[in-house]
Specification:
By secondary structure, this protein is an alpha/beta fold. The protein is built from nine helices and five strands. The chain has a five-stranded mixed β-sheet with strand order 3-2-1-4-5.
């Protein structure tokens, strides 16, 4: 899974950042974007790294600290529901990617992203189709973003009891919809999302 990185390294590019996000689909909670530059993609410590969606929660949790330890640099950025409502999900995603790259303690020579090109970035970058499945650095970033966001939603569950955030992580489920009908919309819900705005309007 290091073919893209290997090709770049063969051309003399060594500091390659992978960028990915977690939380585009949920109607509650932040969008989280992570960027990571791996010191050595061939490290055996990274052998289990895959697209976060292909891993169990237990394995993702184990790999979270492994990736941070194996990283030359990494960053994790939160995009609030308020910003998503103000500027839109896609623009928020792109802005988060730029922020995550700029927050790296080491500037990358090249950036790989999962599916979306980053407009306005001076560093050379490539949008990779299904990047979290074919580029190790993107997979590593997907794990950092996913674990961070899941931990956030578990933590906020006690702040807003009754919604089940620890279980569904802000995605819309039957239980989440029922809770919204009974308890209303919280500050961490994305009010620009159709299902949330309809509740806000009806109340």
């Amino acid at each position: 899974m290091v073919g893209i990185e290997s090709s770049l390294r063969a051309s003399g590019i060594s500091r390659i950042a992978g960028v990915d996000e977690a939380g585009r689909g949920p109607c509650a909670g932040p969008l989280v974007v992570a960027a990571v530059i791996l010191q050595n993609p061939d490290s055996q410590e990274l052998a289990r790294v895959r697209d976060s969606k292909a891993l169990t929660e237990k394995v993702r949790e184990e790999l979270f600290d492994v990736i941070k330890a194996e990283a030359l640099a990494y960053s994790i950025i939160e995009i609030s529901p308020e910003e998503i409502d103000r500027v839109g999900l896609h623009k928020s995603n792109l802005a988060g990617m730029r922020r995550a790259i700029n927050a790296l303690s080491t500037q990358p020579e090249y950036v790989l992203t999962d599916g979306y090109a980053i407009e306005g970035l001076a560093i050379p970058n490539l949008a990779v189709w299904k990047g979290d499945q074919v580029a190790l650095s993107i997979s590593a970033a997907s794990i950092l973003a996913k674990v961070y966001r899941d931990r956030f939603m578990v933590a906020v569950d006690s702040q807003y009891p009754g919604y089940g955030f620890a279980r569904h992580k802000g995605y819309i489920t039957a239980a989440h919809t029922k809770a919204l009908g009974e308890l209303g919309v919280t500050p961490i819900h994305r009010k620009s999302f159709a299902n949330i705005s309809s509740i806000s309007i009806n109340r």
